[in-house]
Amino acid sequence: MVTGKERRLRRLFGADGKALLIAVDHSLTLGAVGGLSDMGSVMAAAVAGGADGVVTHRGSAAHHMPAQRGTALVVHLSGNTALSPQPELKTRVCDPEAALALGADALSAHITLGGGSAEDRRALADLGSLAATCDRLGVPLLVMTYVRTDERDPGPAVLHAARVAAELGADIVKAAHPGDAYVAELAATVPVPVVLAGGQSEGTWEAFCESAKAAMGAGVAGLCVGRRMFGAPDPVRATAELRAVVHGEG
Ligand SMILES: O=C[C@H](O)COP(=O)(O)O
After folding, report:
1. Which residue of 2, 30, 33, 158 has the fewest C-beta atoms within 10 A of its own C-beta?
2. Which branch of life, at top level (predicted)?
3. Cβ-Cβ contacts under 8 Å for 239 (sequence gap 6 or more)
4. Is 142 in the pocket of ligand 1 (CB under 6 A)?
């Protein structure tokens, strides 16, 4: 028997078990800035460049996501805006059923730990409840993990938050790059596929691709990249190059 989650996960991951996801959820937080003023073009570029999936909010999914075989739709259920004093503390902004009605192949939620006692408890409770809903609906849950920490070395906290997400039912965990010394441990200690965020466009494109290649070699299952892709001079080419890194092509 193949479960709904397994069937949908195969739409997201290639036969090699790897995935390049393009994340374009930033316009809820920041507005239509930094390459996201024309969301239709960004999504078309993700598809044309060979992304395995696109992660976005329900409005962009409905209005701009091409119905393209081979590119999965991951609807992001969490949000807050930069107009808030604590934009990193998200709330649920879309129901799982509404996302499935849009044709979602997977759902995505954001969790920030270290945001405060009450905020952390609320985030954990919400994640537990959402994971149970995803189990019931047979839809994979991607959890984007973030930490607020004053530690000079955030690596251990990044690993902890990633593990928390898996413990609470994530089927895929997204984490920030924890630092070269921690990537293999991250991949080995989280019992579900881990994808790494792209982060801010600091450093050269070549250095970013080299770092991503090394992370793939250390065992992560892929990338979930936003700004590095839609802020690139040629987003189609950027997507294709990242696809090659993730799937070991070329
Ligand atoms: O939602 C955010 C993405 O998963 C990562 O975005 P980023 O590559 O711009 O850090």
Report:
1. 2
2. Bacteria
3. 20, 22, 45, 46, 48, 49, 50, 51, 229
4. no
Q: Indicate the pTM of the whole model.
A: 0.96
- Integer CA distances (angstroms), 226 to 2, 146, 175, 196, in order: 32, 15, 13, 11
Question: What distance in Å separates the CA atoms of residue 133 and residue 99, rounded to the nearest whole number?
Answer: 13
- The alpha carbon dihedral of 243, 61, 168, 89 has a sign of positive
pLDDT value at residue 202: 83
pLDDT single digits (tens) 121-166: 999 999 999 999 999 999 999 999 999 998 899 999 999 999 999 9
Q: What residues contact 210, with CB distance under 8 A and at least 6 apart?
A: none
Any atom of ligand 1 within 6 Å of the Cβ of 199: yes
| pLDDT digit string, tens, across residues 184-215 | 999 999 999 999 999 887 899 999 999 999 99
Q: Look at residues 76, 49, 82 and name the one whose alpha carbon lies nearest to residue 60.
A: 76
The position carrying tokens 């075989």 is: 69
Q: CA-to-CA distance for 115 and 104, rounded, in angstroms? A: 29
Half-sphere exposure of 104 (CA within 13 A, CB side): 30
Complex ipTM value: 0.94
Strand partners, 173: 143, 194
